Structures are given as C-alpha cells and as structure tokens.
Amino acid sequence: MSLWTSLEPASATVDAGSSTTVRLRVRNTGDVVDEYRFEPVGPLAPWTTVEPPTLRLYPGTTGAVELRFAPPRSPDATAGPNPYAVRITPTEHPEAVTVPEGNLTVTPFTELRAELVPPTVKGRFRGRPRLAVDNIGNTRLTASIAGSDNGDQLSYDIHPGSVQIEPGRAAFVKATLKPRRIIWFGAKEQRPFTLSVLRSGADPLPVEGTYVQRGFLPRWLATFFGVLTALAITFVMLWIAYKPGVSSGATPKVAAGAALAPSTSPSVTPPPPPTAAATTPPAEPDSGDDGGDGGGGGGDGGGPAATVTEEAPEETAATAVRRLADDDPGGRHVCYRAFVTGDGWQKPVCDGTMAGTVGSDTPIKALNIAVTGVGGSAANAFLHKDDSTDGKGQWSPSWTAVVADGEDNYVGSTEPDDPHMLGFAINVGTGEVCQTSRVHNFDWGQQGCVKQRPEFVFGGALENDRYLEAVKLTV
Asked: What residue ranges are annotated as transmembrane (predicted)?
C-alpha cells in the first residue's frame, strides 16, 4: 500500500438543509509521483462533494481535500448516524484502491402537511371528508386528530383517531360529520369546521373545511305543500258553507186506526282503543249478550267463545339457560345473545359459543346475558363516545343491578341513535366467569377469568375508533 489517509473528524453532525465539511488528509508513501482521484460512494454520495476532486503528490508528501456534506431538508435525509465513504484511486497503480470510511449524523426535524379531500362536503344528514396527512420530515410522526367548529353545530366521528407516519409517507383519516340540528325545509346552510392535527410539544395544525347542509325537503316543495294545504282548507270550508240540503218527500204508509209507537234502539258504545302490548295473555271474551234484546230471542246462550291465538314468546338468554338448568340441575351455565347493528337480536348461544359476527363490519350494540348456578350476574357496557377528546369511549352511567340466576340481564342499547359497544364488564356471585372477545380488525384476544364479585372481567377495547364484534362467555 502506497497511501496513508486520515479523516478529521471521523464523525460529524449536520442539520438537514445545512452543510458541514470534513478534511481528508492523504500521504504518498510510495517512491513515485502519483495522482489520486477522489469519488464519494454510499448512500450519502449524492449530497457529498470533494474539493479538489484530484490531488497530485510527490513521494513522502501529504495533501488534503475537503469533503462537503449538504443533506437536503427532506425525508430522504434519514435522521441518525449515516455511514459514508470515499474511493481513492491512484493513477499509477489503479488496482490499489483505498476507501476510507466515516460517519455523518443527520439531526432529526419534524414537518408535516395536511389537507382535506374534498375541502367542501355536502349532505342532509352527514358529510364524509378525508384528511390527508403527509410526513415531510425525516423522523417518524405520531399525531392525533380532533374536530371543532363555532357554535358546536356538528359532531365528529374520526377514524382512526391517531396515526403514526414514517418519513416520506402519508396517512388518510376518515371523518364523518353529523349536524346536531336537521334542516327540514328551506335553503342550505354552510357550516365551517376545522380538523386539527395534534402533536405532543407542538402547536396544532388546523385544516379548515366547509360542510354544506342541505334541507330535507327543497324550498319549492315546501311552498307547493303550503299552497296545496291552503287550497284543501279553502275547499273544505266552501263545501261546508254551501253543501245543498237533501230531504225526502216520501212518507210511510200507516194502516188505518193503528197507533205509531215510539221506536227505541239500544245505545252503541264504541270499542276501546287498542292498548300497548300487554305483559299478560288476553282475557277470554264474555259469553253474555252483545246488547239489544230486540224483543224475542229468549234463551241464555250465544255462540261458542272465540279462540285466542298467542304469539310464541321471544327466545332470550333466560329461556335458553333455564332449559340447561332443567337438564342439568345444580350445573353452572351461561347463555347470551348479541344485538348486531342492522341485524337485530341473534338467537341465544351458551357456554363458550360465539355470539356476534366476524368480518362483517357490524358492531354489537347490546348484550343479553343469563346465568345459572353462579349466584346471579351484574354487568356494564363500555360505549362509543361521539365527543371523545382523549380517544377513549365511556362507561354506561351505572352497573346493572345484580340479576338472579335464570333471569335476563341487558347491557347496551338497541335504539338506532344510541352508541355501539366498545367492550363490556361482567361479574358473578360464586365461582368464576371467563370471557374471550374479538374487536374489529383484530383477532380473538386471550381468555380472561376472575373470581366472584366484587372482581369483574373486561372484554373488548377502550379505544374510541374500535368496536366489539363477537364474544364468548363461560362460567
């Protein structure tokens, strides 16, 4: 080897978008005059220049070149240590190539860009914009998304609520905007809103958009119905005022000498209005007269009583667990069923069988649970929260009362506008209870078990952008 090299310093630090220099010292240790050509190699080569690019040295002499590093302020300049190298090729002995190596540390910087696609959305009951977040820094970005507007006129359902984005990549966040007040008639209204990208230790990045809320019925249709109603009222009033009177000139023919007795007719009472669905079977109809003896008829009986057909009772978790208790007195069992969004109540299942759905994008809104042999159950639902600020859902206001063995226990709600379930908690009076749950876009979790109350077992997720889709219970 006829060449000696030294990097001064061997390790350097530079900010992305700035530059720094490192001196490379070279000594000709051979016995002939030689010229050396310098060429940057490796990942940093596009940002490295050598001045001068060649150096001619006499034997025993030393020279130096400057390595200038200028990484751009872009995701390509990866934060952290980056190795670099310079290939030195002697003209006289091209086979004797030397490649000194060093280390350049690029400092991290964070920069992001966000935009709404589209910036203006329209709808009567909801709008669905998408927020594109681009990480144009050189380090991983973690951020959460929140929505706001003046006057709190909209509610926001944001999925996912937080993102992690690698340098040079982008993430898309789906948002559903729902107006808190429906416009039934009239012109559309513009409701400005803001989706903010929140990062720890940094100011929020606001992205403004507009939700154009349309009326449920257009203005011309409301005017049409108003005119039509006015015309109908006018017609009815005119009909009442000018309706011609009609009388008959015919008179009944009466036999001579006969007296006309006043005719009587029994009073007729209208039937009572139908009542709400009763909790007891309907009573047998009375077998007596139905009014109006009409003079004659004698006898004390009418026709046979009408047959009343009842609907089969609903199959609940309690009816299923009672059948198991009848077949296995003293045994421990749990039966349950799920109310699935868009499908309603499923049939009850028992002792570790799956309730709910897998892969159908339909959350569970309510659970119906019944136990036997465990001293009753109590439960609570963990629900989606529309206005969540920490990315978490919320518990129902209180636990259910302790429901006795063989009776139905309900958590959650089946009302269309009520939130779906993210998870649930349950306990029993004796022995233990176990759950295995599946959260949307995740596989089945580990089975969890606890002893009798006050301990309880939780299944599902706490994150507001997830939901419970299937569950298995055992006792």
From this structure: 220-242
The kind and range of the H/E element at 326 are helix 317-327
Q: What predicted TM-score, i.e. pTM, was given to this entire model?
A: 0.42
Output b/e per residue, 110-128; b: 16+ Cβ within 10 A: bbbebebeeeebeeeeebe
Alpha-carbon span 287 to 307, nearest angstrom: 13
Can you give the pLDDT at residue 226?
A: 79
pLDDT at 186: 67
Which CATH number, 2.60.40.2310, 2.40.50.180, 3.40.50.12370, 3.90.1010.10, labels domain 112-213?
2.60.40.2310
Q: Cβ neighbours of residue 64 under 8 Å, at least 6 residues apart?
A: 23, 24, 25, 26
Are 138 and 111 in contact by the 8 Å Cβ rule? The answer is: no
How far from chain centre, in Å, is Cα 158?
7
Q: For residue 303, what are the contacts with CB-CB under 8 A and spacing of at least 6?
A: none
Cis bond upstream, residue 118 (ω within 30): yes
Instruction: Work out the pLDDT band at 187, boundaries 50, 70, 90.
Output: confident
